[in-house]
Amino acid sequence: GAVVSQHPSWVICKSGTSVKIECRSLDFQATTMFWYRQFPKQSLMLMATSNEGSKATYEQGVEKDKFLINHASLTLSTLTVTSAHPEDSSFYICSANRYGGYNEQFFGPGTRLTVL
Amino acid sequence: GESVGLHLPTLSVQEGDNSIINCAYSNSASDYFIWYKQESGKGPQFIIDIRSNMDKRQGQRVTVLLNKTVKHLSLQIAATQPGDSAVYFCAENVSFKAAGNKLTFGGGTRVLVKP
């Protein structure tokens, strides 16, 4: 149990386009979902925390107008990278807390974004 | 701790030997600690966790030690196998019981297992 999926697993796009990444909890309801970004040979850096039905909380230095997060249901959160540029190329990972559970985070497999 | 720099420290281990990975955490208020394993191109995989009311916890071939006095966490892997080759991250959290609290990840250590 506690499986989190991400779609797509990888995406290549042209500079200036927008890309949407989905994060789904497959066998549980998630009160909170988290979005991380990871550059090569670096650790995971939290971008934002989202709760179902409310606005996301962004970490300092993360542009909320560039990284749009929508947590429409207890099983789905989406991250949209708007007007993507090459410096946005990274590995994006989501995680989720189980509804009614403790603060264990279950991680998705990640999405590799490459902006040309 | 927070990630610093672009170079992950690397631990080279002979297959069959024990591995010890260390982590210094930053927040004395943290009460929940987790070790994750990350293989190339994949998301983090839970290995073992420990709460602050414990100083040692054992799993299958892994042991986590917590020293709150010096804010230090370690992961011991017994009889390291080629499949253990990965990057290992520690993470800390200020409240295990309150879902929605963010994790802070350490910088990571790459483990290379030599046959």
Helix and strand topology:
The complex is a heterodimer of chains A (116) and B (115).
Chain A: E1 4-7, E2 10-13, E3 19-25, E4 30-38, E5 45-51, E6 57-58, E7 67-73, E8 76-81, E9 90-98, E10 105-107, E11 111-115
Parallel strand pairs in A: 2-11
Antiparallel strand pairs in A: 1-3, 3-8, 4-5, 4-9, 5-6, 7-8, 9-10, 9-11
Chain B: E1 10-14, E2 19-24, E3 32-38, E4 45-51, E5 56-58, E6 62-67, E7 72-77, E8 86-93, E9 104-105, E10 109-114
Parallel strand pairs in B: 1-10
Antiparallel strand pairs in B: 2-7, 3-4, 3-8, 5-6, 6-7, 8-9, 8-10
Describe it.
The complex is a heterodimer of chains A (116) and B (115). Chain A has strands spanning 4-7, 10-13, 19-25, 30-38, 45-51, 57-58, 67-73, 76-81, 90-98, 105-107, 111-115. Chain A is mainly beta. Chain B is built from no helices and 10 strands. Chain B is globular and about 40 Å long. Chain B has strands spanning 10-14, 19-24, 32-38, 45-51, 56-58, 62-67, 72-77, 86-93, 104-105, 109-114. The relative contact order of chain B is 0.35. Residues 1-5 of chain B have low confidence and may be disordered. In chain B, strand 6 and strand 7 (72-77) form a beta hairpin. In chain B, strands 1, 3, 4, 8, 9 and 10 form a 6-stranded mixed sheet that branches. The interface between A and B is medium-sized, with 30 and 30 residues.
List keywords for this structure.
heterodimer, A: 116 residues, mainly beta, 7-stranded mixed β-sheet, 4-stranded antiparallel β-sheet, 0% helix, B: 115 residues, 6-stranded mixed β-sheet
